[in-house]
Amino acid sequence: MNVQKGTATYAVDPAPQTVLPVEGSDLLFPIRRVYCVGRNFAAHAIEMGSDPNREPPFFFQKNPNNLLVGRDFPYPVASNDVHHEIEMVVALKKGGDSIPVEKALDYVYGYGVGLDMTRRDLQGIAKDTGRPWEVGKAFEDSAPCTPLFRAEKIGHPANGAVTLDVNGVRKQTGDLNQMIWKVPEMISYLSGLFTLAPGDIIFAGTPSGVGPVKRGDQMVGRVEGVGTLEVRVV
Ligand code: MN
Hints:
four-stranded antiparallel β-sheet, binds manganese (II) ion, alpha+beta, 234 residues
């Protein structure tokens, strides 16, 4: 039953380190935590029935091993209303507490394009009952993501279209410049709540147009200046 790895003996087989590939290299980016920003585009906040005024950002988390890279998205159990949310993903190379806004981009390793897949029916029940969101957000394979694109190559995109097509039909459209909380602000704010560390990633919020998917759908998400994510629902 015990598992020997190196000099350690584990009581059960230890989980593998979740990684994202780094585009244009053999490097693997080790994932520590997955943070997600809620309601970061005014039009999406309105479509979800919220006040789009600039209230403080709020965050939830997915599990590192919810990330899905280079595979189809299996339609999850326990839901009949699974929604797409296309988002830019921010990957941190440094961590800390109380990171000032003006220094925050120095902490960014790179960016990716991700989908915050959501069991909207279960999230809705959680909202109605004041319960946590994990059942709606942190399920298996709920975070499809591209490899990471290094900031030293692509810079720090602050403008650019964020779009999602399903079966060739445009469903979501926004622009990075419409984010209520910009990347440096979300890093700074988050670092006031948690100790950030290398390997943490942040899903930066989705523009309006979220909606359901079904098996067989082909999703193509783009963040201009970052990359393209193609995922099939199976
Ligand atoms: Mn989201």
